[in-house]
Amino acid sequence: MLKLHTLDLHDRAPRVIAAFLLETPEGPVLFETGPESRFSALLDGLNALGYAASDIRWVFVTHIHLDHAGAAWRLAELGATIHVHPKGAPHLADPSKLWASATRIYGEQMEALWGQMGSVPEHRIAILQDGDGVEIGGVRIEALETPGHANHHHAYRLGDVLIGGDVTGVRIGRGPVLPPCPPPEIHIETWCQSIAKIRALNLRKLYLTHFGPTDDVGPHLEALEARLLEWADWIKARLKQGQSREQMVAEFEAYVAGTLRAAGLSEEEVQEYEFADPAWMSVDGLVRYWTKHHPEEVMA
Ligand SMILES: [Zn+2]
After folding, report:
1. What global pTM score does this model have?
2. Which residues make up the environment of ion ligand 1, defined by Cβ < 5 Å?
3. How far is the CA of 158 from the centre of ligand 1 (A)?
4. Domain of residue 103, CATH code
5. Which of 53, 48, 76, 49 is nearest to 64 (CA)?
């Protein structure tokens, strides 16, 4: 039985961003680091399990978005090796482009949200290709190329359990699963292919960065795909009508909040979803998807 713990990084609220700690006879392995702004919460979580940050020799990040890998450089400074997708590796070594791209999305909130930027020295980066496995303390960790949310996304399979990152969606508590769709790399067709690839593994459990383990894997993946297609169509219809971004954001925020309230969630829980997966960000990501990949289909 895997000793896999969920660490709550308390990003503005509980259950927004997780990291996962696997205990093995050779030492602990960390999946996801959270943002640098929440590094102290990560340390608290490690301490509660009896570890210091310097005990972490292996880190695996699903992708290099700042809520998943923003603190990787802090762990590398302490001696950890960061495992990452080949297309993510250059951005760990030199995060300036990633930082500039995130600044276009978050503007003046950058530092408050994500903390400090730092780089991971190349000798602390281990690149994994699709299907590559690393064995640590008797546990095989297999990287699975799973694009769609980002084009440099890995999920990590540990037997019949998957650390899913963002390609397996956002689902908080008893709420429904939603697809996080930030710009600039959302691609609906490849995301659906990734979901099919994951479904074929017959997994027992998914660990979501936003947030935690879920064990009704089949229905979860089915609902994720249905919602992804529904959101994409929602945006496509408004683009064809020539709606402005402002109008789309306002309507989409209300639409998503309505979905969550209809599922019986409290206002606090609706807010946790909005922190983990802001509706306005998915508008921008899906608008970009349509205008970049299928411009002919959304001409007003
Ligand atoms: Zn994320």
Report:
1. 0.96
2. 67, 166
3. 20
4. 3.60.15.10
5. 76
